[in-house]
Amino acid sequence: MNPTGIPGFDELVGGIPKGELVIVAGGPGTGKTIFSSSFLYWGAMKYGERGVYVSFAEDRNAFMRNMRGLGFDFEKLEQEGLFRFLDLLTLMEAGTSELFEVILNEVSSFGAQRLVIDSLTAIVQGMTSPRELRVFLHSLLSRIMKSMNCTTILIEEVPVGRRRIGYGFEEFVASAVILLERTHLKDKFLRRLRIIKLRGAEIPNPRACFTLKNGFKAFPPSTIKLPEKALKIQPLPDPPGAHSTGIRDLDELLGGYPKAGLALLEVDARIGPTQLSLIVDPTMINALQNGKPVILIPPVTMGLENLKTVFSHYGAPIEEFEAGLRIILAKGPGEKYGAPNYLITHRGESLEITLERLAFTIKELVKRAGKPPICILSSDALAFHYGSQGVLQTLHRLIAVAKETDGLILCVMESTFPELAQSLPPLSSIYLRLTRKHGCFLLYGVKPRTQLLAVEADISDGNLVTRLTPIL
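Given the sequence above, the corresponding C-alpha cells read:
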C-alpha cells in the first residue's frame, strides 16, 4: 500500500494500492478535487514524489488560486520540480487517443509517481462509444500505472440522486473506489467518505467523517492517546464577560461559557468517560489554575482514583488544588477514600439538607478565593439519589447562587433519565451535544446553533489539548 499523506486517511485504511487506479467519486461539492489535490500535495511534501494534475474542468490560474485558499502552495512545488499542471480543456475535441498520448508523454518525461485526472466524466463526453472508454482505461492501466508505477486517481462525478457510480465497468477495473458524500446528522451538515473497494486489503472501517477545513482531513475511529508524562499546561484567560471553557477552539466559537448561567452538555449513550472528559475536564482544570473554586459532582461511574488520573493527564496533581476544589461523592463510594479536604461525602439525607450544605460550601469557597465558582455536575448522579425533580430543584438553587456570584453551572446530562432532556434545556444559556458517528466524536451547539465539530485529543507537544475541527 502507498501512503497518501492525507491527514487521517492513511490511519483509516493504510493508504492506497501503489501503481494502481483509484476512482474518487461523488456528487458536486463533495470534495473530490480537494481530496485528489491533497494526494498530490502531501505526496510531494512528505515523500518527495512528483505529481501531475490533468484538468478538463479548470485552468491553471483558477486551480492555483483555489489551492492557495487551502494553504497549498503548488506554485512552489512547481518551482522545485515536484508538480505539473496540465490543462487539457482545449483538447476535449481531439479524441481519446490524442488525449492519452499527451498524458502519457507528460507523465513519462516528468517521471511522475502520482497522477490525477479531473475528470473521467469530462473525458466520456467526448467519446463515441463505451468501447472507447474501456480502451482508454486499459491503456491507462497498462502503459502509465503498471509500466511507470504511477498511482493514478480518476475523479468521477455522481449526479445528484443517482446511486450507481460511473458507467458500469470502470469500478471493476479500479483497485480502489472511494465515494465522497454530503449527508446530515440530525439537522447538521456532515461529510462522509465510504470505501467501496480496496483490493488486497481488509476494510475494517469502510465509513468515516471528514472535513475540508484547510484541506482534506479524515477522522478515523477515535482512539484517544493520553500523554505518558504531561507537563503543566498554561491556563486560558477568560473571554470578556464569560468563563473560559478551557478549550481554545470552543472559546473562539462560543465566546466562553456565560457568567451567572447554566451550560448544558447532553451526552450520547455511546460516549464513554474518556471522550466526555475531553470536553468537561479542561473547564475544571482551567478554572482551578485561574484560582476559581470548583465544586464537582462526577458521574456515578467515576471514583476518586479516576479523577486523580484525570488531573495527572494535565500535569496537575489533585492535591495542588485542595483549597479550591470540592468533590461530592455518595457515602458508600466516598468512604473508602478516607477524608481528604477536597472530598465531601453526602450521607443520603434529604435534598433540602444537601442543598443547604452545597450552598454553604460554595459561599465559603467564594469568600476564600474571591473569585466566582464553577459547579460541574452529572444529572445522573443527582437523579439516582433524588430523582428528576431533585435535579431540577438543585439546578434552580445553583442558578440562584451563580447569579449572586457571577458563577457557572456546567451540567452533564446523560441518557439514563430521558425526561430531563425536556425540562433542562429551557434553563440553559448554552446547550451543547456530544455524540458519535462512524467512530468520530462530534460536538455541536443547539443553543447557540453551530456546525458539527470533530473532537480530537492532541498530545503532539506533550500536553493533552482538546482540538475541535469544524466539519466544512
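The chain has a mean pLDDT of 89. Try to locate this feature in the C-alpha cell string yourself.
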